[in-house]
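In response to the reviewer comment on reproducibility (Comment 2.3), we provide here a single inverse folding case reported in full, input and output, so that an independent group could reproduce the run without further information from us. The structure tokens appear first.
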């Protein structure tokens, strides 16, 4: 959970637009494989995000501007079983509270449990860094 002192619509626009992801630390590539139904990054969109040797393809499964975007990872390296990822935004007195959750496990025999823990920690740090970069990007002035 992180609060960004900016309007909810502005935060949602940056979080949902794959084209801007390469501005974030660690993201080497982001491309749209299939456009969404009502918004190119919206419901049904399939996006490929590349983080060097690690990549994943995700489908947007809920897109309710400006408060919610859910996704499911369809394919990845390393291979994971992904239940659901969800980004929720809420207006507060301080700005926009962003809550990200993701449930998954790395599917590699013997070391998958250990790698799941590493991946969860890396994902939490990466998402936190992304939110800090968005905060800096949306800061007035």
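Designed residues, in position order:
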């Amino acid at each position: 959970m992180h609060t960004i002192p900016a309007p909810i619509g502005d935060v949602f626009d940056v979080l949902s637009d794959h084209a801007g992801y390469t501005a974030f630390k660690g993201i080497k590539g982001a491309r749209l494989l299939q456009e969404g139904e009502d918004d190119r990054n919206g419901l049904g969109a399939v996006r490929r995000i590349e983080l060097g040797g690690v990549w994943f393809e995700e489908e947007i499964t809920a897109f309710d501007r400006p408060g919610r975007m859910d996704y499911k990872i369809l394919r990845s390296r390393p291979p994971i079983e992904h239940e659901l990822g969800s980004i929720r935004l809420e207006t507060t007195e301080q700005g926009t509270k962003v809550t990200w959750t993701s449930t998954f496990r790395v599917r590699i025999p013997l070391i998958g449990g250990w790698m799941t823990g590493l991946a969860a920690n890396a994902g939490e740090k990466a998402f936190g860094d992304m939110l800090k970069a968005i905060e800096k990007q949306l800061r007035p002035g």
